[in-house]
Amino acid sequence: MSIVTLDKKTILVTGAAGFIGSNLVKRIYQEAPSATVIGIDNMNAYYDVALKEFRLNELAKYPTFTFVKGNIADKALITELFEKYKPSVVVNLAAQAGVRYSITNPDAYVESNLVGFFNILEACRHCESLEHLVYASSSSVYGSNKKVPYSTDDKVDNPVSLYAATKKSNELMAHAYSKLYNIPSTGLRFFTVYGPAGRPDMAYFGFTNKLVKGETIKIFNYGNCKRDFTYVDDIVEGVVRVMKKAPDKKNGEDGLPIPPYAVYNIGNQNPENLLDFVQILSEELVRAKVLPEDYDFEAHKELVPMQPGDVPVTYADTSALERDFGYKPSTSLRTGLRKFAEWYAEFYK
């Protein structure tokens, strides 16, 4: 692996007003205060824009952070950004997220996840300063694979949602560009990321919103789903470590580049049953005084069948991440949900 220093470098983060993106920008400045970070985000209304603005406001305190409102599917804009700022490291987190939304609004996924990512790859191809492209993939690529834990060596050719298909496509596109143009690229398959100021379409956040309003929460697959919940700080720690080590450029026997390409899982390696998860969440919401102590959770729970596009279990094998970066996510679900509940109490009070 090639060492990439972040000090005094220009780093482009797409999706910078997003949940992972905004936390990553903060973490980059902890790691390398002398870095310059360019953030781009289209600030779309897929979920409450006030949350994105809250995250952006927290980034305004960094004097070398520049925010650009725009869409990665706008090729002219992306070309212009790369020519102007000449980034050394690019972290592509901008994407249309969510499995269920991809069933009702597929166009958004093709635009952002395919066209947008293609524009990033094309710009990287022409960017002489580029040392490493890191991009978000997803645990969704594993589909309904029966073998667990999920390993990056597993075959992932059976997506069960368009969202998953676009993320697998990103890995394939990155591989082709790594091979053709010798671009060091690393894909990261994130497993169910959660935490303060997260995405309201995620179960923990959506459940909380509904419980606060006295509505009933639907627990899919009758509660028999397991998710490898990964706390956001663990995710961004992993991303920063990966940014600093790029796959080596080297040529094969034919004199052509062996693609400097890698893919890793980032997950907690500890799947939690959804019913246990709801139990812990409810306890932490009471503790943070988001809900009253006498709240009747049983009356607000409904067990329902599996949803289209969903999978029964996600479970990360993170041994490759441990081997190459000496890192393994470790925040417990209770610790992470406590921090979320405390943030929620403060933000919505």
UniProtKB/TrEMBL annotation:
<protein>
    <submittedName>
        <fullName>dTDP-glucose 4,6-dehydratase</fullName>
        <ecNumber>4.2.1.46</ecNumber>
    </submittedName>
</protein>
<feature type="domain" description="NAD-dependent epimerase/dehydratase">
    <location>
        <begin position="11"/>
        <end position="266"/>
    </location>
</feature>
<keyword id="KW-0520">NAD</keyword>
<dbReference type="GO" id="GO:0008460">
    <property type="term" value="F:dTDP-glucose 4,6-dehydratase activity"/>
</dbReference>
<dbReference type="InterPro" id="IPR001509">
    <property type="entry name" value="Epimerase_deHydtase"/>
</dbReference>
<dbReference type="Pfam" id="PF01370">
    <property type="entry name" value="Epimerase"/>
</dbReference>
<keyword id="KW-0456">Lyase</keyword>
<dbReference type="InterPro" id="IPR036291">
    <property type="entry name" value="NAD(P)-bd_dom_sf"/>
</dbReference>
